[in-house]
Structures are given as structure tokens and as C-alpha cells.
Amino acid sequence: MLDISALLEELKRSPYEEISIRAPHCGRIGFSPALKEGMAVYGPQGEFKEKAGTLLAHIERERNLKEVSCPERGEIIAVHRDLHEKFVEAGTELVRLRHFLSRPEAEKRILQKALHLFLAPERARYYFVPSKDIKIKTAGPRSVSVRDGEEVFIMSRMKRETPLQYNGPDGVIYAVYFSHAASVESFTPLIGVCPPDMLAQVEEVVLRVQTEWKERY
Amino acid sequence: MRMHIMETEKHIQRLHERLAYIRDIFADKDEPDISLLAAALEKHLLRSPSLNPVELREAASVLEELFAFTERKLDRELIPMDLVRIVRHPQRVCLRDILENVYDSYTEIGSMDEHSIDPSMVIARAYITRSRGKRSFNQSVMIIGHEKGHGEDFRNGGSAKPWGNAKALHYMKVAETENIPIHTFVFTPGSYPVEDTPGAAQQIAANIYEMASLRVPVISVISEGGSGGAEAIALADRRLMLSHGYYSVISPEGAAAIEGRLRGDGRAANDLVEACAKRMKITAADNLRMGYVDHVVPEPHLGARPFHYDFFRTLRHELLRVTDEISISMRSLGPFRELRLRGRRKRAARGLDFEKAYVRWNLPPSAQIRLVNRRHKKYRQLSRQAAPDNTPLSRRVSAVWQEVGWGLYSHFMRDMIQKRRQKVAEYVDEVKSEWTLFFERVLSPWNRLLDKILGASERVNRETMRKLTELSEWNVSLEQRGGNWVYVSARAREDRAVSCPNAQVHGCLDLWAPDLYGEFAGVCPNCGHHFPMEYQWYLHNVFDQGSIFEFAADVECGNPLEMENFTPKLEEAKKKTGHKSACMVFETRIHDARLIVAMLIGDFRGGTVGAAEGEKFIRAAERAARKRVPFLAYVHGTAGIRIQEGTNGLIQMPRCTMAVRRYIDAGGLYIVCYDTNSYAGPVASFLGCSPYQFGIRSANVGFAGPGVIAETTGMAPPPHYHNVYKALARGHIQGIWDRREMRFNLSRALLTMGGRNLYYR
């Protein structure tokens, strides 16, 4: 059985992920003069992520100068200065970044391991069958349990409605990832199902993440 | 006694409001006169409890006189930026006040406060009661105007949305059907810059295009005339302007931001904003002098507010006078028209009461045609002084003769001979078809027998069989010429790689510049992204070789407002491009089909349009009409109207649109092709009004750039908001062309979309 508390403790011990930023192709590297270890950097910003992240370096190939910008926010832990003004091969590590997980990211990681995610088989609109829908609307999704092979969804595509069976371990619906009348891409999660005996534990860990998790940057 | 105290308190309250208004107008500047007023009011308040009613009334009267005197004095010292603050002040008269006080009765159409498709655009049917002898008449008018609503949030400051402008146009057409005059009131800082269908630019263009030939008198009154938003309803037979209003191509803050090269959230310093407001010549007096308004309606000192009933009387008087004048000058019999008008003006000077001098406002069909012609003539004459024409006299004279010659030739060849020839050809065609049908029937038994003996397949033409069974050949004279371009960009000589902006999304590999700018014609072979190319590429690769003949090249753009540091910038642009303006007009051929092209060059001051560009564009449209050939507007790039020319530039929106309207009405084929980036005024007028607009792939077409949209609406537009594909999906343009196939597509467009007067085949 999955020990969720241990999972959380492990995540707390190293609340970040390390991202290696590599040369997209071969070329001569020139690091940004302001770049140094310990520096806080930002990923793409703006409502549509239209503003590039912090400029890390320039790479020049065939007199074509390109910018290498930061893909995520975080802290620089290593800059390979020795490569400055040198020709590098594609895939050479230039900068190492420590991206500290945000609260939703930490929660998502735990839930991904603890829950069984049921994926949409096709690009369509999805609804719960009326019996489940009423229950979810009145008492919330966690009051609804699902069994393997049970008809839980209605898949609506081009105005044709097809019943859809749930496949996976029995449990309660912990999270619903789709909304009414919105089209869902294929292979994106519809629901996250939690075995009944683990429900209390998952709820507790999520609560702990929400209250105890410290965000940096 | 109690009544008296209440009146005094009300009076003091009003004085407080007047003082606050003065402070707002002068933006809390340290004016000694304002301090004096404040001190006098304070002193009066301190003294008033100890005064008896008679003394109190006297003191109040003295204070009132002091206020009136100071307002008079301050009014003389107003600078243009103060006028901007006056028109933007919540106490400024708004359309509702005018409807209440100028007209005898009105019914708002399609709106009740915020319950409207666009509360910033108000439409109303109103009437004015006048008399002749003992009879009285209710004269109907269609009122269309921006409503600022004394600062009501939902009015959006009078910034009409595209659907608000569409509603205005709808009711202009209604007025035309009902044959009643239109009074438009311009109270807008500018249009709301969203591209949602019908689209800010496209709708303004549609409005101007339709207003150009509305068959009823249109009178516009301008209080705040902000750029394209104003033009959407301001094209009129007579333009009145309130003396404390402004009419400008851009807000002074916007001009200062450009002047100060500010980007993002940066704000220009007050001094710079005030200087820009002054330099752009935005006041009523300036616009009257330049000829862009016909008459200035005087306002009370420091601007009209809702309690200035004399102002409303003056405005009513002016509206009656002007509407009558238009009506008389169009209706009366030719020889008596001027006499009647002159007599009326004399009587008006002696104090003629317009309320008692009823004149019919509906126009008979002949007067309607005269009205439209007069309107076109009036706008054609505007802004000529702002675009110096340095063509030598001898060439000018010969050009006039040529024009006369073309006119006569076209009339003789096209209107007389060609029409008859066409009729004969139609008759011959009909006879031929009948004969063919008859002949086929007679021969059908014989043909059937032949089919049975030889088999139907044997009779398939050899050429048809070859076409169906062999691979097609590359036609080098059409479409992409196999990458063998006549003109190759200078960038193709550089030994370097270029990245496609879509590399991350589509995985495009870096491209070698000689390939990209040479054989590929600036098109990414993987994703089809079009890199911007020089306008010369189009000149040489789209049109027939050696067929370009430029005209009106000596019409030169100048600095009509004498803006500081602008002349050297213009000279630099002229030197860089070798052109005297951002518009090049020429005659050319494509597959031997003659056409006239007006090209806006993006390299010359961003392709901005000023008086010279407008004049050249109009001459091109007129030449195309005279020669009965198609007219193409190729937009290599345009950033809008040239702000340094102020209203001299802004007026090109209606001027050029009217030229296009004349051309299309005469049966011309007007095609627009957008390349790179095309924004603002030109798109919202003479380009956007074309029924056939095409975009070169990867081009951007829109009204305002992303920065302006974010600043005005508070919402950042999504990426690729102005991309041609989005423009096509919204219905703004009619197709997207690949640059390499422009010659082919243009040629096909000429063959498939022709007007009745075109003889290009």
C-alpha cells in the first residue's frame, strides 16, 4: 500500500526539481553578464505566457544569434561559465536551475501517485450519468463511489451521446477534472479515484500541503 | 427668511462647484486667480453668519461678479491641453443634455441607460417645432452621437464599440429611407479598439464608406473628436465645432508617448503632453483655419455645462441655420439658389428668428444627387495645402490635357462603342447557341451510330488523354516560377542562418539566408511563415517586367504643422527610400491586364498616411476611374495616420474613402492586399471599405496594436490577435494569399471580380 505521508515527507525534504538547461543546438555560447549562482530567475510570463523568461545566454550558429531563456522560475544553482564564448555541441548543459514546487504542484504530484486517473478516450464533451450527477451536485464528488465496469459518464460527440464505463479500481471520486459543456481532449484525466480506505489519508496529506507548504519565489 | 437662507446656501454650493471645476480644468496649477477666488469664497463664508439678508445678497452678488470676471480672464488664457481637460470633464455637456435642451421632443432608440447594445452610442429620433405664419411644423431629425453621460462608467467615456458604430450606420440608413436630416454629435476620445466582429476598423470603414453617399443632409457637431472613433460619424455636409472642443488624430498623451519614445507603462511628462497638444493644432480655431470644420459654435467661458441654457439656444440656432442652408442650397432652382441663401444670411445677421422661418428639410431625388456630389467636392478640396505638389508647370498642364483625353477616350470607347459592341456580341452569342443546339439535334442519330461503331472512348481527344495521364508541368509563367525570381532580396547575399519564429511550435529548422530570401521568397518551407520582404520584391515579381509607370511622384509630404525635429526625420526617410512620400502610385500590367496600383511603403515612416499620401491615393483612384482599369491598393505596411500632420492626416480617412466610393460607384474593381503590418486609420477607412481584401500570409491587420488595446480595455489581447487568419475568421478580409502565388492570385482575382466598366481582359 502506498504510504502517502512518507511521500509528503520525501517531497518536503527536497521541495524542488532540478532543471537542466541545455544548448538547443550546437553553436557559440555567450552567457548573460548578470547571470550568477543563487540568482532568482523567472519563466515565461504574461496572461498567455507571451513574455519570455529571464535571458540566460545567447547561442550563435551561422551568424544567427538566438536567445536561451529560462523555462521555469527558480534559482540558479550552476552556470557553466567555462563554456562562455566557446563552441558547444547540442544538448550540452549550460545552466542548472532549481525550481521550487508551488503548493498546487506539490499537491498534484501527491495526487498523481495516490489517485487512479481515468482518462478521456476521445475528444468529446463528458457528463456524469444523471444518478451520479445529482449526487455530485448535492453532496459533492467524494460522496460518489465508482466500480469497475460501471456506467459513470455520457460521452457527447457531434450530438450523439454514448454511455461510457469506468475502468479501474473501485473507489470514491476524489477530483473531477472536467466541466460541463467544455470539450475535453483525448487522454486527459476526467476523474481521480481514490480507494475508500485511503481517502482519509489523502485528505489529510492534501490539507497538510495546503497549510504547511512553504512557497519560495 | 428660511427660503432666502436656502437660496444663499445653494448659491454658495454652486460657487464651490465652479471653483472645483476651475481647479480641475487647470489641473491644480498654481494660478493666482484661482487662489484669489478660493480666498474670496472662504472670506465670504466666514463673514456670512454676521451679515443681514440684504448685506448677504449684496456680498453674494459681488462674489458672483468676481467669479464671472475671473472665468472670463482665465478663458482667455486657456491652452490646448486645458481644452482637452474641459471636454473630458464630467460636468461637460453631453448628448443627453443636448437632446433635452436643443430639441423639442425626442425618443431614444434602442437604449435606456446601460440597457443598450452599446451605451456609448446613442440614437434618437427628435423633432424641432417651427412655425410659418400661424401654422407650426414638427421637423424630424435623426440624432446619432456619443454619450459620455457625465462620467457614468457604463458609457465607457464615449468610446463606441464596433457594434455601436454598426447601430449608428443602421439608423443613418433609416434616416436616408425616411428622407430626414441627420445630426451627429461627436463626443469621443476614440473608438474602443477590439477586433470582435464587426471589428473596430472594419466598421468605421463601413460607416465612412456609407456616409460618403448618404442622400440626406448630415450635420456633425464636434466636441471631442478623437481620431477614427470621431470619423465613424463625423463625415458631414457641414461640420460645426464647439469652441472649447478638440479634434485630433491622437490624444495629446498618446502623441507625447510617441514623441518621448515611451513604451509600456511609461507616462509622458506634463510639459511634453501640453507641448504636443499645442503643436498638433487641435483646437476649434485651428481646425477652422485649416478648413476641417465649417463653423465654430461659441461656448460660455471655460466651456459649456448643463446649466448654460444660452449655449443650448445658440446651438439650436446654429443647427437650424445650417440644416436650412443645406436644404435651400440643394432644393432651390439653380439661378435663385444663391440669391435665396444670400438674402437669408442677411436677414440672419439682422436677427432673423429661425424658429419662425420654416424650411422643408426633405430633399427631392435631384437635390439628393446634388447633395452627394457637393459633399464629395467639398472633401476633395480639403488638405491640399498640406501636400505640396512640386510637379513642374509644363508637366501639370500636359497632365490636365492627358486627363481630358483619357476621359473623352474612355467615354467614346467604353461607354459608346464598347456598349454597342457588347450588345451585338450578346445577340450573336444567343444565335450561335440556338444554332448549336439545333445542329446537335439534327446530328444526334448519326453521332449515336458512330459511338456504337467506334466506341465512345476512341473519340476522346488526344490532348485530353495526355493531360489526364501525364504528370502536370510546372508553369513558370504562373504561380511560383519555380523559384526563379526576377528580383532577389539583398538579404540573400548574406551568408548566415535565420530562425523561423514558429521553430518551437512547428520544429522548423534554421534556414540559410540565400535560400530563404532567394528561392523560397522569404517563406519558411516547413511551416509557411512569411518573413517580411522589401516592396521591390513585389514590384518586380508580381507585375509584368518593365510595365511600371509611376505618376504623381512629385507630390511630396511635408511638415504642415511645423512640428519640431520632424523635418529632418522626413528628409532622412526620403533619402533612405528615394521616395517623396510613403505612397507610390503607378500604372502597370499583369498578364497584359492594365491596372493602377497605390502602394503604401512600410519603410517610409512606417507607411503612415498624411496629406501627400492621401492626395496621391485619390489621384490614383481618379486615374483608374478615368481609364476604366482595376485599382489595387497594395499595403506593404502602414502604421496608421501620420500623427505629426494632425487633422491634415486624419482628414485623409474620409477623403480617400470618398475617392474609393466614387470609383466603385462608377463600376471599378477595387482590391486591397495587406502585407506585413497594417493598422489604424487607413485600415479603418479607405482600405477596410474594399469588398475584396486579401492578406499575405503571416501579415497582421487590425485597428490598434496590442499595447493600445491592453491600455484601453485593460485586457491583454491573445497572441496572434491581428493575424490574417484571425482576420479572415472574423470576416474582415476575404482571403489569404501565399506571397509566391500573388501574381497568379491577383491575375485570377482581376479575371473573376470585375465591375461593369472594366475592360482589362
Largest sheet of chain A: 4 strands, antiparallel
Give the strand order of the largest sheet of chain B, numbering strands 1, 2, ... along the chain. Answer: 1-4-5-6-7-8-9
- As laid out across the biggest beta sheet of chain A, the strand order is 1-8-6-3
Number of helices of chain A: 4
Largest two-chain interface: A-B, 10 and 11 residues
Helix content of chain A: 10-25%
Q: In the CATH classification, which architecture of the largest domain in chain B applies?
A: Alpha-Beta Complex
Give a quick summary of the entry.
The complex is a heterodimer of chains A (217) and B (761). Helix content of chain A is 21%, strand content 37%. By secondary structure, chain A is α+β, with helices and mostly antiparallel strands.
Question: How is this structure best described in words?
Answer:
- The complex is a heterodimer of chains A (217) and B (761).
- With 217 residues, chain A is of the alpha+beta class.
- Chain A has two domains: 15-100, Beta Barrel (OB fold (Dihydrolipoamide Acetyltransferase, E2P)), CATH 2.40.50.100; 104-196, OB fold (Dihydrolipoamide Acetyltransferase, E2P).
- Chain A has four helices and 16 strands.
- In chain A, the strands form four sheets. In chain A, strands 1-8-6-3 form a four-stranded antiparallel β-sheet, with no helix packed on it.
- Chain A is elongated.
- With 761 residues, chain B is of the alpha/beta class.
- Chain B has five domains: 2-77, no CATH class; 87-380, Alpha-Beta Complex (2-enoyl-CoA Hydratase, Chain A, domain 1); 407-468, no CATH class; 490-532, no CATH class; 535-752, 2-enoyl-CoA Hydratase, Chain A, domain 1, CATH 3.90.226.
- A seven-stranded mixed β-sheet of chain B has the order 1-4-5-6-7-8-9, sandwiched between helices. In chain B, strands 12-13-14-15-16-18-20 form a seven-stranded mixed β-sheet. A two-stranded antiparallel sheet of chain B has the order 2-3.
- In chain B, α21 (611-627) runs parallel beside α23 (652-665).
- Chain B is globular, with a radius of gyration of 31 Å.
- The mean pLDDT of chain B is 89.
- At the A-B interface, loops of A face β10 of B.
